Amino acid sequence: MKKIALLALSLLFAGVIFAQEKIKVACVGNSITYGSGVADREVNAYPVKLQGMLGDAYEVGNFGKPGATLLNHGHRPYIQQQEYKDALAFAGDIVVIHLGINDTDPRNWPNYRDEFIGDYRSLMQSFREVNPKVRFLLARMTPLSDRHWRFESGTRDWHDEIQLAIECISKAEGVQLIDFHEPLYPYPYILEDAVHPNAEGAAILAKTVYQGITGKFGGLQMSDMYTDNMVLQHAQPLTIHGKADAGEKVTVTIAGQKKKAVAASNGKWSVVIDPLKAGGPYTLSVSAGKEKRVYNNVLAGEVWLSSGQSNMEFYLSSSATGKRDIPQSANDQIRLFDMKARWRTNPVEWEASVLDSLNHLQYFTDAAWTVCSPETSGQFSAVAYYFGKMLQDSLKVPVGLICNAIGGSPTEAWVDRRTLEYEFPAILKNWTKNDFIQDWVRGRAALNVKKSTYKFQRHPYEPCYLYESGILPLQQYPIKGVIWYQGESNAHNKDAHEKLFKLLVQSWRKNWNNGQMPFYFVQLSSLNRPSWPWFRDSQRRLMQEIPHTGMAVCTDRGDSLDVHPIFKQEVGERLAVWALNKTYLRERIVPSGPLFKSVEFLKEVAYVSFDYAEGMKAADGKELLTFELAGEDQMFYPAQAVVEGNQVKVWSKQVKNPKMVRYGWQPFTRANLVNGAGLPASTFRSE
């Protein structure tokens, strides 16, 4: 009996010892794993932070080697370092690999790129040999900032190629891929030397590894776009997505449909809802395990994003017709999602707490879908309201309007970082002293952040900032299209804007995975600023160059002294007729005033042809104004003009042999040509 008791005790004791064996996590990598660039790396390096998150059941080892390459023929191969030998001796149950950054060196990738995948898999195999049950987490590499001295000479492109190789290895080996890139990419200030994350970045990496190991992502999470009263885009398959703990079963129900998904190893899940019929109200329910989210009073209809700068933000209560229309604005079929700035870019110096929030992209207030009413419409965009009202009246379906316009914001602030890194990297360089960016924009930003002592302080006008703080949070919420009113903060350089605007449209269409997404914009109005005629004509040409766009002309509703004209109803409705004609195929609706098509010169007379020319006349019933002619010397002189059929005949006693014609070529113009729909002609200049 004593022997049996002793045996039982020894087995129990052995079981306790076995239960107390820790799970070993080997963090393999370069200087980023080691903790270079991290203040107090012994406390703040990501493996140390990871140990604190995982707790006593785990043992985390830091085997990072500064400067190490994955490539065996690289300038400092990891497999030749003592840290590699130590990692093998550690025989980790879990091995987290973050290598490849140093392989972007021109000594490495151009010469040995073909060996990368083989060398990576050989490294993994060496860890299998010391622990056949090892679990791998392969990390997509941390970002490299455009401030890196070799960014454009190769590092940018080679970094992307190595990322793809790591993804390929993960798939081929059937092992888990975690992402060190995505959570850091919108925060370039974290990479103080353009390469190494600081302590804040190291904490983010630790959290990413913790989530990858444990599968704990904080339970069911939905985009802030999902609230009661929301409008979902109807008549098309609808992706509903979110996060949950890895492996959690998710169920989504709406309109008699029940769709199921399982959260992946990165916590992400999505389902595709069959097209919803316009109307409602519906109830959307999302459940994962014991958690459940229920959204009530949901409608299905047309969803549009309205964005830009202050003339799009301009409130209905301040518009010429606001007092008349606000009391009559109650409409359950129009819903508003209003993303306002926490701090306006007024001429003030912001406090330290504001500056820190800006760095963390916490610029927009929390928003929720609301029903359009006198209580909600007055502080909403006037242009967006009149656009949505006309759509709702015409289509007889619910309309959802999202607004995130920011006063004074330049185009470049709304373009995604990757697009600018590849297509316009020069505008990212030292942006507060960059001539591509309007001096007013730079001056206002400098004033707002004057109290900052941080070298890389962020501001809403910084390139990419409003995309990262105002577009990414939308999380690709399905929309029908975009209306855009902006340009005042880029009118100093029409040539740069021509490139930026194309990149903006491209960027947003890529974000929403819709290469034909409608994008209707407002041409700048009349104002006494000398560059504006050229800018307005540039916008006209952009409309012709970018498919699925339309331009609302509003030079007849400008103010010579005020950049914020109050006549917004016409602007919103002129955007709406583009949508009704082009997006909703209401062909009887004229979408635009006369748009210059061609000119023919016959002796002393120019005959100008237009699109949308039917019923052309002077808006005031008087003679046509602001037409001008020039000869080969390109000196323009005032001209007389009359409508003849669907053309305008133009002549001037001062120009005997005309070669060029222009119209509305004054910053504040009295141009008065309209068509039968009463829509004004655009400023133009012939070649």
Number of helices: 20
Q: What is the oligomer described by this structure?
A: single chain
Got a strand count? 29
CATH topology of the largest domain: Rossmann fold
Strand content: 15-25%
Q: What is the total domain count?
A: 3
Sheet having the most strands? 11 strands, mixed
CATH architecture assignment of the largest domain: 3-Layer(aba) Sandwich
Radius of gyration computed on alpha carbons: 30 Å
Task: Work out the helicity level.
Answer: 25-40%
- Residue-averaged pLDDT, rounded? 96
Poorly predicted regions are 4-9, 11-18
Ends apart, CA distance between termini: 108 Å
Shape: globular
Name of the CATH class of the largest domain: Alpha Beta
Description:
There is one protein chain. The chain is an alpha/beta fold and 687 residues long. It folds into three domains: 20-214, 3-Layer(aba) Sandwich (Rossmann fold); 352-583, Rossmann fold (3-Layer(aba) Sandwich); 595-685, no CATH class. The chain has 20 helices and 29 strands. The strands form six sheets. Strands 7, 9, 10, 12, 13, 14, 15, 16, 17, 18 and 19 form an eleven-stranded mixed β-sheet that branches. A five-stranded parallel β-sheet has the order 2-1-3-4-5, sandwiched between helices. Strands 20-21-26-25 form a four-stranded antiparallel β-sheet, with no helix packed on it. Mean pLDDT is 96; it is low at 4-9 and 11-18.
